[in-house]
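Here is the promised in-class demo. Please do not try to memorize the tokens; focus on the logic of going from shape to residues.
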């Protein structure tokens, strides 16, 4: 094992790399150790195609084409909170893609929690047209009405909005959902598919999927 004092590593001028057990200077790679007292201590590995930063509570990844703006960040958490995987970078809106290989699947071993990150709203206590710009939520068709329009900025005409009825005995057989630009309409129907007015407020829940 090779151990070098931090003061020596700091004093080295120019890029530094470790290859095949040797310590060498290279023109296109850097290995930086920053242990300044009181600062955010980190180790940084960087090259022309990206970087890896390991800090006290965060790990940043940015590998790929040189100059790309967006990276993945892994944050630690204190007791009682979950660590997080985040998209970071200079773009205003950055998605996060998870790709499996071949016929491999993306698997989760626990329910998805939409409420904690603020992606759930329940407006079913005020039946009728409403605004819920969240991934999931609850609303209600008013008594003696046959439809409810939910304004939702996440929804487009190609969205899949899964709607589930949560009320029985309201005089309807099923619900039909039609997505549009910035909203979706939920209609109560009879067993033959005809729009039917409710005999009581009819609560439903929804989840938005964009394709």
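The designed amino acids, position by position:
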């Amino acid at each position: 094992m090779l151990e070098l004092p931090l003061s020596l590593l700091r004093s080295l001028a120019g890029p530094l790399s470790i290859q095949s057990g040797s310590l060498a200077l290279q023109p296109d790679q850097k290995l930086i150790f920053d242990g300044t007292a009181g600062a955010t201590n980190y180790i940084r590995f960087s090259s022309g195609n990206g970087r890896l930063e390991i800090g006290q509570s965060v790990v940043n990844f940015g590998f790929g084409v040189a100059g790309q703006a967006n990276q993945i960040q892994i944050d630690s958490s204190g007791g009682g909170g979950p660590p997080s995987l985040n998209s970071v970078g200079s773009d205003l809106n950055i998605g996060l893609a998870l790709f499996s290989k071949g016929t491999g699947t993306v698997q989760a071993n626990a329910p998805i929690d939409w409420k904690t990150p603020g992606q759930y709203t329940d407006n079913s206590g005020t039946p009728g047209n409403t605004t819920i710009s969240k991934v999931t939520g609850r609303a209600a068709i008013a008594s003696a009405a046959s439809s409810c329009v939910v304004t939702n900025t996440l929804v487009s005409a190609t969205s899949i909005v899964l709607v589930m009825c949560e009320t029985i005995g309201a005089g309807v057989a099923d619900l039909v959902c039609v997505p549009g630009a910035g909203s979706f309409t939920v209609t109560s129907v009879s067993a033959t598919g005809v729009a039917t007015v409710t005999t009581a407020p009819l609560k439903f829940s929804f989840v938005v999927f964009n394709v």
